[in-house]
Amino acid sequence: MTEVLNQLFIGGAWVDAADGATMPVDDPATGEVLCHVADAGPKDARLAEEAAVQAQAEWARTAPRARSEILRRAHELILERTDELAHLMTSEMGKPLAEARGEVAYAAEFFRWFSEEAVRIDGGYGTLPDGRNRMLLSRRPVGPCLLITPWNFPLAMGTRKIGPAIAAGCTMILKPAPQTPLSSLALAGILKEAGLPDGVLNIVTTSRAGEVCEPLLRGGRIRKLSFTGSTGVGRILLAQCADTVVRTSMELGGNAPFIVFDDADLDVAVDGAMVAKMRNMGEACTAANRFFVHRSVAEEFGRRLAERMGALVVGPGTREGVDVGPLIDRTGRGKVEELVADAVERGARVLVGGRTPEGPGCFYPPTVLTDVSPESRLMDTEIFGPVAAILTFDDEDEVLRRANDTPWGLVGYVFTQGLDRGLRVSEGLEVGMVGLNTGLVSNPAAPFGGVKQSGLGREGGRVGIDEFLEYQYVAVPVR
Predict the structure, then answer these.
(1) Which of 4, 52, 298, 299 has the most CB within a 10 Å radius?
(2) What class of enzyme is it (predicted)?
């Protein structure tokens, strides 16, 4: 691994935590400590807030084209450093290098997308219906933002939030997950090199999230929170935002149904299942969680999926030929172990996998379960691991009811060769996104987000920048 940045990034400078605290960053493939990074406390959060607040007015006045060019340069720099960033990401998060390189490209594309959106922020002008006033509409940045990102896509989740904030003219504080701070720190270095002014982006790495974030949200100077993480933490943050009515974007948990009808092309369905389940080792909010397969094709689908899952190579992400890296940590692996054990106790059959390997690291094998009881805990829990749980169904109305029987509504997957059925079921799913005969929905040009307890607002697409902009209406009398 190349030399890494390990300090806080505040006001354009690299600094240690005020109290000198540091925290370890572990390699999930070995359990060994990669390095130590600064562990920010409340004083550091105040300094970052002050830097963002002081930079806001001038940054908001910056020409949209200037903001666009910074994002475009950063996009190019990220791509130039693909291998370096991929190795860094694999070291701290575990995903195989091929997937890490894919995430680097995905992350860079958010900067290119929002570099183009930065110059398309428009308003409006017209006469009001009563004829007495003209209406002048303009859009302006919401103000200093707090961005909180998860560990599973440490680079892309940063660019998906930072990109529209920069394009809109907002300053920000980024708090990355403590398990994966190195990718975010590397990104800060790239943006500084690309010409981002001091104070526009500030990064506080910390193991003391509550001490750092709550005062920022309750203090009144942060005007926007963008959070990606669990629904439980999201509820806590929403409560903290209430006192000062902080604007929020919440991309929360998922419990994605994967529906295979009797007329589905099983080759396409299995290919889709491999993507929807095994992208990022299943550690994704978009991961297929509940596999509802029509009774007439369930046995064949399960056999084919188990064959494909069993052929995957498990090992350190840096090793050539590895398909599946370690889970993020022992806590994450322990959760997967418990969910599988509970399902088996309730009658599920293990077609492949299901046993934790011996040795170092946080590995868990790709696993397929069939005859899963609807009462199993993994039916109403985000698995966040390489486990496919198969249940059967008999008709369309039944599977829609069961698929929607959850407080979450992020994404769903539907496989059928019938266009009418595909559209009908897609429209009937209570989710923000649907993959129809595909296992991949994420794209910087598409709006990402869910309904119900899966979140508020959208990221990416034409609407992604809207989360960082406010409308102002000026009434001008007609004389």
Answers:
(1) 52
(2) oxidoreductase
Chain centre distance of CA 260: 26
Name which of 148, 150, 152, 155 is nearest 103 in CA terms: 155
The residue segments making up the domain with residue 364 are 256-443
- Which contacts qualify for 85-90: CB closer than 8 Å, 24 or more apart? 85/155, 85/183, 85/186, 87/1, 87/2, 87/318, 88/1, 88/2, 88/4, 88/182, 88/183, 88/186, 89/154, 89/155, 89/180, 89/182, 89/183, 90/317, 90/318, 90/325
- Residues marked as catalytic: 251
Q: pLDDT digit string (tens) for 38-94?
A: 999 999 999 999 999 999 999 999 999 999 999 999 999 999 999 999 999 999 999
The pLDDT > 70 percentage for the chain reads 99
| 270 closest CA partner among 322, 311, 321 | 311
Q: What is the rounded CA–CA span in Å between residue 1 and residue 108?
A: 21
The Cα–Cα gap between 240 and 217 comes to 6
Does the pTM exceed 0.85? yes
Burial of 477 (0-12, 13-18, 19+ CB in 10 A): exposed
User: Within this chain, do residues 386 and 333 fall inside the same structural domain, yes or no?
Assistant: yes
- Asked if 391 contacts 378 with a C-beta cutoff of 8 angstroms, the reply is no
Amino acid at 410: L
Label residue 220 left, alpha or beta by phi (over 0 means left) and psi (-120 to 50 means alpha): left
pLDDT band at 425 (very low <50, low <70, confident <90, very high): very high
- Under the banding of pLDDT at 50, 70 and 90, the label for residue 4 is confident
Count how many domains the chain has.
2
Closest CA to 151 of 176, 188, 185, 173: 176
**The pLDDT value given to residue 1:** 42
**Residues facing residue 251 across a β-bridge:** 228, 455
